[in-house]
Amino acid sequence: QVQLVESGGGLVQAGGSLRLSCAGSGPNFSSYTMGWFRQVPGKEREFVAAISARGSITRSADAVKGRFAISRENAKNRMYLQMNSLKLEDTAVYYCAADRERRTPRDDPRRSDFDYWGQGTQVTVSS
Predict the structure, then answer these.
(1) Beta strand residue intervals within 3-67, DSSP E
(2) Quick one: which of 44, 52, 51, 43 has its CA closest to 68?
(3) How do residues 85-102 score in pLDDT, each as one tens digit?
(4) Residue 26 confidence (pLDDT) above 90
């Protein structure tokens, strides 16, 4: 069992930056593919980015490519999402998630790949 807690969300102006953190508990954090998803009311939770167990392979959604960067520090059981050049449409609740089956994310990660979820952190981008 893994418990995940996100932090770092908040209110930011368009064009600004935020860094989200995900703190994981349990001994197997470093063996899991990890990911970030986001959700707005009335819409499906969508994939944002994923990173392999060792951090050498990443995936990101087209909507955030070139603006967001995912990373992890296994020694600290931490994962991060650096978000730059934020847009209004990035406003959402952001969730971190762990995939206990895979050490490397699929080419097209999906919500059903991930077994453990955090409670989410709100990111609001204002004009």
Answers:
(1) 4-7, 10-13, 18-24, 33-39, 46-51, 58-60
(2) 51
(3) 999 999 999 999 999 999
(4) no
